[in-house]
């Protein structure tokens, strides 16, 4: 099979993995720091760093052959898809060719399981080793780690990759046992724990070496680890999903948990739902995830007891505010930062700007306009010197109707 044919198959097969991110990497390109370019092509995905930079990565599978038969996976052993497999040398060549043309800044490499976890992980580590040691590749490398691989291979992977990720697959162990019986939830979490221990150990060793004349040890997966779970395949509600995510952040210090809405696949198992969940559900989970990580919310606040699912019509912070009108309006001139973060329409960056600005004077309505915040959403929940929402919070249902976006025509039939 021609290399371009393999690329078409294995780039398309990689599109289902959402955990393709480059946050935590330094600024790199193939022209000595003079700029970053990107283009479109097979296997090139675009992701964004926390500072807003668009980063292009070659996103491919080493192979879409797999010995496992996970019901939700298009590349499962029983699937009738066209198969292909790269050699390690071919992946190295593709990465370098794309990089030298400034099409990409790095590589995202995943794979189906060939023979066993160790054999597959060895091939992926060899790609990263060859890029780093044989070709002095300075770009970003993200390796999807095989949970069954030995600790020695995980250690080698972290030595060469910027980020490692292990997919938790599904929110519950029961769902995983039902839809992917060959995978073990405890094995996945053991591998995550191994990565966390190695990352923490490396961080401490580098910190200790910084204060002494000794040479600092090489970095281990400096961009940390991430994971992904499929939404809507096993019946778990949003409260369960968010509790799982919250535990992953706490137990394993995940940099990101990615959510991928289940997509119906050909010849699907009867155990799977016939239709995909609404994409808006995936979007709401990302918003809720942000509230957990950066805004001080708890899962029980985002999804109240007995609800189970997030509201698809409005974002979770606005939904919380409408359930708690007694907490508003918030005086922007005196409220602590923790309360400002709970105001609908205010992001963390604008909260910091407000805290900084009010050191120099009392805020007025004109000052809010300069924040470029959505004033329609913001004004019912805040007060400043020349603005008070008065009785707007006395009728949360009416306020919700005013703030909820009107459905687009295509969504009426979704």
Summarize, please.
The chain has helices spanning 3-13, 88-100, 117-134, 151-160, 173-179, 185-210, 238-252, 279-294, 299-302, 316-323, 337-340, 348-357, 365-369, 375-378, 396-403; strands at 44-48, 54-61, 106-110, 140-144, 163-165, 225-231, 256-261, 330-331, 382-383. The protein is of the alpha/beta class and 414 residues long.
What do these coordinates show?
Its cofactor is [4Fe-4S] cluster. The structure is a single chain. The protein has 15 helices and nine strands. The chain has helices spanning 3-13, 88-100, 117-134, 151-160, 173-179, 185-210, 238-252, 279-294, 299-302, 316-323, 337-340, 348-357, 365-369, 375-378, 396-403, and strands at residues 44-48, 54-61, 106-110, 140-144, 163-165, 225-231, 256-261, 330-331, 382-383. By secondary structure, it is α/β, with parallel strands linked by helices.
Largest sheet: 7 strands, mixed
How would you name the CATH homologous superfamily of the largest domain?
A: Aldolase class I
* Fold-level CATH name of the largest domain: TIM Barrel
- Uncertain regions spanning at least 5 consecutive residues: 21-41, 409-414
- Termini, distance in Å? 40 Å
CATH class of the largest domain: Alpha Beta
Number of domains: 2
Amount of helix:
25-40%
* Spatial sequence of strands, sheet with the most strands: 1-2-3-4-5-6-7
Tell me the radius of gyration.
Answer: 24 Å
Structural class computed from helices and strand pairing: alpha/beta
User: Order of SSEs, N→C?
Assistant: HEEHEHEHEHHEHEHHHEHHHHEH
Number of helices: 15
Query: CATH architecture of the largest domain, please?
Result: Alpha-Beta Barrel
């Amino acid at each position: 099979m021609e290399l371009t044919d393999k690329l078409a198959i294995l780039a398309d097969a990689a599109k289902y993995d959402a955990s393709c991110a480059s946050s935590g990497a330094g600024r790199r390109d193939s022209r000595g720091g003079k700029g970053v370019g990107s283009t479109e092509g097979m296997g090139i995905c675009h992701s964004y760093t926390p500072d807003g930079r668009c980063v292009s990565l070659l996103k491919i599978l080493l192979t879409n052959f797999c010995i496992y038969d996970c019901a939700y996976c298009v590349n499962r052993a029983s699937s009738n898809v066209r198969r292909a497999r790269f050699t390690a040398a071919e992946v190295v060549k593709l990465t370098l060719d794309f990089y030298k043309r400034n099409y990409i800044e790095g590589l995202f490499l995943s794979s189906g399981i060939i023979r066993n976890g160790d054999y597959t992980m060895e091939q992926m580590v060899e790609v990263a080793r060859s890029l780093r040691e044989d070709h002095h590749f300075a770009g970003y490398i993200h390796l999807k780690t095989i949970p069954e691989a030995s600790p020695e291979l995980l250690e080698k992977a972290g030595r060469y990759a910027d980020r490692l990720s292990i997919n938790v697959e599904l929110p519950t162990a029961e769902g995983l046992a039902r839809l992917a019986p060959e995978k073990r939830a405890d094995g996945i979490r053991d591998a995550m724990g191994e990565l966390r221990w190695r990352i923490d150990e490396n961080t401490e060793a580098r910190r200790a070496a910084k204060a002494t004349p000794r040479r600092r040890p090489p970095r281990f997966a400096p961009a940390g680890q991430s994971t992904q779970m499929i939404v809507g395949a096993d019946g778990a509600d949003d409260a369960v999903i968010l509790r799982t995510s919250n535990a992953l952040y706490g137990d394993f210090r995940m940099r990101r948990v990615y959510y991928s809405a289940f997509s119906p696949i050909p010849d699907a198992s009867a155990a799977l739902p016939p239709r995909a969940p609404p994409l808006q559900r995936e979007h709401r989970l990302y918003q809720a995830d942000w509230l957990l990580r950066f805004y001080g919310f708890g899962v029980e606040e985002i999804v109240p007891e007995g609800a189970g699912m997030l509201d698809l019509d409005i974002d979770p912070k606005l939904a919380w505010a409408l359930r708690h009108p007694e907490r508003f309006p918030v005086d922007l001139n005196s409220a602590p930062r923790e309360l400002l973060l709970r105001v609908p329409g205010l992001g963390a960056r604008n909260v910091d700007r407000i805290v900084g600005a009010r050191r120099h004077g009392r805020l007025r309505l004109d000052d809010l306009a300069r924040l470029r915040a959505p004033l329609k959403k913001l004004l019912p929940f805040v007060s400043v010197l020349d603005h008070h929402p008065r009785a707007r919070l006395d009728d949360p249902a009416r306020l919700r109707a005013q703030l909820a976006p009107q459905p687009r025509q295509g969504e009426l039939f979704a």
